Amino acid sequence: MAKRDELIPLYRQLHLIRRFEEEAARAYAKGRIGGFLHLYIGQEAVAVGANAALRADDYVFQTYRDHGTALARGSSPRACMAELYGKDAGCSRGLGGSMHFFDVANNFYGGYGIIGGHVALAAGAAYKSKYAGDDRIAMCFLGDGATNIGGFHEGMSLAGLWKLPLVVVIENNAYAMGTPMSRTTAVTDFTTKAVGYGMASDRFDGHDVRVVQEHMAKAIDRARSGGGPTLLEVMTYRFRGHSMSDPGKYRTKEELEERKKRDPVKLARQALLDLGMNEEDIAALDAEVEAEVQDAVDFAENAEPAKAEAMWQTVMAPEDL
Ligand SMILES: Cc1ncc(C[n+]2csc(CCOP(=O)(O)OP(=O)(O)O)c2C)c(N)n1
Ligand SMILES: [Mg+2]
Questions:
Q1: Mutate which of 115, 142, 144, 250 to test ligand 1's pocket (most atoms within 8 Å of Cβ)?
Q2: Does 180 contact ligand 1 (Cβ within 6 A)?
Q3: How far apart are CA 53 and CA 213, in angstroms?
Q4: Largest alpha-carbon pair distance within the chain?
Q5: Is the CB–ligand 1 distance for residue 115 below 6 Å?
Q6: Which ligand 1 atom minimizes the distance to the CA of 147?
Q7: Does ligand 1 lie within 6 Å of residue 65's CB atom?
Q8: Nearest ligand, CA of residue 64?
Q9: Which of 99, 155, 228, 295 could make an SS bond with 123 (beta carbons 3.0 to 4.6 A apart)?
């Protein structure tokens, strides 16, 4: 029973992220959302499993594929959808869009377009924790393609040297845009990179949310208890293109279909059934999620556009900060 009760909110989050992004894709195709839109569909168990192991006051950083992480952290679907629509009620006041979600209240610190550059920022947050003597840890998500930028190595180097409470999570979805890992990286196992920085590491499958939660918890405990940083490589896959404009010609239909057999939302749903939850109760949960996503779309459609003055208010720190 306990296992089932623990899985229900995780399934709900997985399903919410999936449905949120499916509706975002639809709105994008209708021209309601401008700019870029990078979907997390297929990778949801990474963000949800991680969040289940984190504390609400831990610091979380992500690259531009950030919707799932923000929603898992607890950002409201309304504020997230409004951000995609470029509305003032968005989590970045409509100024950031898809790539730049930010939600201080939920300790979600972005949303960055410069891939890998944010590892140094996350190391900074972890340094703050150590310096202040609090026990908040920092978690930084990045893609397989982002490990070759300077910021990644700078952040890793200081984290290892100063034994910072940092967990660096490489979401290895096998591609950087259309480029397979074999063409970007000389090693096949990212955890070997941890050795050079004196960091612990772990590598695991990212499709079963419970497996993710379990492995994340170990790394988080290590960071929180003064054991230093960890590099995690989570094996995952994105079911959609890199962005909405990617026809995905670099992979075969067969590869995609094979990978979809390990859909994290379906796996969690099946696990609930195996744990004795009945179809009707799951359908009721799905209906709740459906209403929440529809409400977010309606809210975003009707919200006020981003305001020019917000740009000035957010460039300079307010005097009372
Ligand atoms: C410093 C930098 N160089 C190049 C780019 C262009 N770019 C955008 S996404 C991307 C690939 C990222 O792949 P990965 O890190 O594996 O993330 P994924 O899209 O698979 O989630 C690149 C090279 C960028 N945003 N920043
Ligand atoms: Mg990738």
A1: 115
A2: no
A3: 6
A4: 57
A5: yes
A6: 15
A7: yes
A8: 1
A9: 155
Q: Which helix (H) or strand (E) holds 78?
A: helix 77-84
CA atoms of 281 and 262, how far apart (whole Å): 23
Measured CA to CA, the distance from residue 310 to residue 121 in angstroms comes to 24
Ligand 1 atom closest to the Cα of residue 142 is 15
The CATH number that domain 2-303 falls under is: 3.40.50.970
Contacts of 314 (CB under 8 A, 6+ apart): 93, 95
Task: Output the 3-class SS for 131-176.
Answer: HHCCCCCEEEEEEHHHHHCHHHHHHHHHHHHCCCCEEEEEEECCEE
* CB distance 144 to ligand 1 below 6 Å: yes
User: Minimal CA–CA distance to 169: which of 17, 49, 67?
Assistant: 49
Question: Where do the DSSP E strands lie in 173-245?
Answer: 175-176, 179-180, 200-205, 230-235
Q: Is the CB of 61 under 6 A from ligand 1?
A: no
Consecutive sets of 10 residues in the chain, 321 residues long: mean pLDDT of each?
91 98 98 97 98 98 98 98 98 97 97 96 98 97 96 97 98 97 94 98 98 98 98 98 94 97 98 97 98 98 96 78 62
The verdict on the CB of residue 233 being under 6 Å from ligand 1 is no
Which residue type sits at 208? D
**HEC assignment per residue over 11-38:** HHHHHHHHHHHHHHHHHHHCCCCCCCCC
Quick one: which ligand is closest to 46's CA? Answer: 1
State percent of the chain over pLDDT 90: 96
Q: Is the pTM of this model over 0.90?
A: yes
